[in-house]
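testing teh design pipeline on a random one, pls ignore if ur not involved
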């Protein structure tokens, strides 16, 4: 009986196999990141050209995943984190009135949320990590820095 592990599947599948392995690695990283920080849902959007593309999602409703497959700079929390080059936070997704939260995000069964920009070695943005928490929450500057430092461990696209 032949046993094909992920590496041999990638070799057979070529580029699509590498994309699959990258997605699995990113989703595994995201699940761990959420657990480590007490979050209940999250996404990873990677920069591809002039848009952010959904690369991983945990506990995000399918309609929200569809709406957030591609995010332009400046739109929604992830697009604003990219545009501002800083963490974008809300203490409650459902009642936010800043305009930073798009209607689709309000469908996530959570309240407090962060969109965290992640930079590559050159300092350029490479991804935005989104995480959401069950209850309302205010974040200190120290906490925001800690989240940003932790998000920097996001695996590089290969």
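output:
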């Amino acid at each position: 009986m032949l046993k094909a592990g992920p590496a041999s599947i990638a070799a057979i599948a070529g580029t699509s196999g590498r994309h699959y392995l990258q997605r699995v690695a990113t989703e595994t990283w995201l699940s761990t990141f959420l657990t480590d920080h007490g979050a209940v849902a999250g996404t990873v959007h990677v920069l591809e050209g002039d848009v952010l593309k959904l690369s991983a999602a945990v506990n995000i409703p399918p309609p929200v995943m569809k709406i957030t497959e591609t995010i332009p700079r400046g739109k929604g929390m992830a697009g604003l984190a990219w545009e501002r080059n800083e963490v974008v936070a809300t203490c409650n997704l459902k009642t936010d009135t800043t305009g930073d939260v798009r209607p689709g995000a309000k469908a996530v069964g959570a309240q407090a949320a962060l969109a965290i920009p992640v930079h590559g070695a050159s300092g350029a943005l490479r991804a935005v990590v989104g995480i959401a928490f069950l209850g309302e929450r205010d974040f200190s500057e120290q906490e925001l820095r800690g989240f940003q430092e932790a998000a920097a461990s996001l695996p590089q696209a290969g």
